[in-house]
Amino acid sequence: MGLEGKPVSTLHEKPSYDLADFPVPTGREEAWRFTPLGRLRGLHDATAKATGQVGVDVSAPDGVITEWVGRDDPRVSAAYVPADRVSAQAYNAFDKALIVTVPKETAPAEPITIDVRGSSADGAAYGHTVITVEPMAQAVVVLDHRGSAVYADNVVFDVGDGATLRVISLQDWDDDAVHVSHHHARLGRDATFRGFVATLGGDLVRLSPSVAYTAPGGDADLTGLYYVDAGQHLEHRILVDHSVPNCRSNVLYKGALQGDGAHAVWVGDVIIRVEAEGTDTYEYNRNLVLTDGARADSVPNLEILTGEVAGAGHASASGRLDDEHIFYLQARGIPADEAKRLVIRGFFGQLIEKIEVEEVRERVARAVEAELEK
């Protein structure tokens, strides 16, 4: 249940393309209570001037169609309606939308790579991307965010009947960057979506992945890894909305925090509506708080409106390294510092192995190693 006994679903009931439908957040709202609004640099209250520079480069295999289109293209708004004020601001402020289409019954041999590069944190930039995987097609997409920017965007994954889409999203920004993004996956009949998020850089990153089902048989896995340093605010807010029968979802996010003022926020909302009989879902978040002065907020929410489910559960845990694990390794001659690093490597190892693109997997592993050396 949400605040004051209200169902979680009421937090997501009023999507709109109209910015005026979303009041300026004050920080007292459930959806914004963990976010330091003063560090959003005006993305939430329309004071951010759209003078920022963010470049987007696309590398796509043969057969994949890429287009830059205007707001009047019907594909831009076909699969997603903004769910909060920053999302609506991004929708109303972008210049051109990127449309990537994987044609029916194709399976590109190489990943589709979308590089997002910020050149300055002076002024804001906005973006909109739609990735459509047509029926019975398969694709892997890498979203790579780097540089300095104040950036808000929406990324829509429209997965057709029987299609499979795997997405890896890296938030590897410079220390002064602010990024607020909504990732939305819409799944057709028997469609499969695998989303992996690695958030490592930036001053403030707030990422909101969501999943909606349009027909039975949809299968979604959302996996995330984050490492928060001193002064960073990294926030992930997940919504999985089960509104049709016999669909599956699994959410697994892990994070580590170190340094004064390091703040991680994870909110997981799973809704199983009355008509969604046969749903099978689970969500889990775990945080390692490695030093004093770091804070992890973890809020799993599960709203079940039907008694006919295959399975539903959630769990959350935040704490220090397990002293027994450290003692076990020290008893075998491993120094304490190295023992701690080994435990943290093992904590993230299961997730890193899920990254299917070798270059990206190695890059994330190196980033975690660099954090361990701090």
TrEMBL record:
Residues 119-347 form the SUF system FeS cluster assembly SufBD core domain. NCBIfam families: sufD. Coiled coil: none annotated. InterPro entries: Fe-S_cluster_assembly_SufBD, SUF_FeS_clus_asmbl_SufBD_core, SUF_FeS_clus_asmbl_SufBD_sf, SUF_FeS_clus_asmbl_SufD. Belongs to the iron-sulfur cluster assembly SufBD family. Pfam families: SUFBD_core. Signal peptide: none annotated. One of its GO terms (biological process) is iron-sulfur cluster assembly. This is Iron-regulated ABC transporter permease protein SufD.
